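Format notes (please read before filing issues)

Several people have asked whether sequences and structure tokens are stored in separate files. They are not. Every record keeps both together, in the order shown below: the sequence lines, then the token lines. Line labels are part of the format and must not be stripped during preprocessing.
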Amino acid sequence: MDDFCMLFNLYGEYGNFEKWAQAQDEIEDLEKMLNDKKRHKELTPTELDKIEDDKDEVITKKTTKWTVNTFSDFLRQRQKNCDFETYSASLLNETLQEFYASVQSTAGREYSVASLMCLRAGINHHITKYNIISEKNFKSSNAIFKSVLKRYRKNGKDTSVHHPHITESDLEKIRNAPALSPFTPTGLVRKVWFDIQLYFARRGREGIRNLSKESFVLRQDENGKEYLTLAHNPETKNHKDPTASDRENLRGFMFASPGDPLCLVDSFKKYLSKCPENTGAFYLHPRRIPLCKLESIEMWFTMEPMGLNYLGNMLKSICEEVEGISQMYTNHSLRSTAVGRLSDAGLESRQIMSVTGHRCKASLRSYWAPSLSERRAWSDILTSRTSTSKAKHNFTSKPKTEITLPFSMSNFTINGNVEFNIN
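Then the structure lines:
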């Protein structure tokens, strides 16, 4: 039997003991680091409270706070327990009956219809264990609430006015005004804001401050035409469910108009090219650049984002610089204008709702209002009807013409149609 030798490499790819031992230490250190690193975040009670608080819009928080303060002040004046969240349904119902019938402002005046409705809605939002609007336990307090509303309306307290549509002539003046010129920094950011608000039919203040460059995406249709839409499903006060099947329908679409100097998509792309990179907010304050130097300066905007109040008064600021418009408009007028124009074009309610995001036709109906020109036309119709009614209804009797037949007919029955040709 021949001698043979078998060689074993106990340390594999490491070759020797020292390298193997070093590798094992590195593996142990890595495993320890992974075990020490926690997968989930650690949150403090304060951070959890803030997350819960963020579920409501800012305006909802303010309204609810005002409502709770008003109701608490009423309870203190009546020397009752201000901790109304602990009230039973029957006690809360009795208290609300008195509250609805006697609540007044700090100046001792009755609230408007809209304010009274806001008070009830705010209390209902604050109290989580009852629904004071729909539950049967609060039937009597709601009956008094409706009676008070009826009295307010009779006394002329229903003075609420919906945001007016922008008239066709005013809309044309605003669009072509220097205030919305895409050739100046201020005009460019205003124009982009104006286009997005109108074509996406967004609410006046909701979510504007939270927009970023990543909120939008440019795409092309099957014919290669560019359009702008949202890159994500927007969250609004009426659309907070991330699993809703129709959320993508709310993204809005804004198509390009090639060759138009005021093209919506071109203005948007130009705005992005003039903004600095790595900015969190979408709407930025313009730099103060002399007109003669605009061509040579690449960045037209600063890193400073526009604030909520600044954006909330954007259309009002634009209107102040437009000559010849009939009235001042607010941001929400763009939303009501979108509803009115789409409705006048013959779109069905479901189609308009896919643009505006309304959940029901009833809420959409409140946005429609006849324009002043329409009301003028209706008045003219009634006026002309009054002046021409005599002419239309002054009928004169025509003389009867007697026809003598050359034959006589009697004592027979005809089944069907008979035609007589008499020459």
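For reference, the curators noted about this record: The radius of gyration is 36 Å. The chain has three domains: 7-37, 48-154, 168-365.
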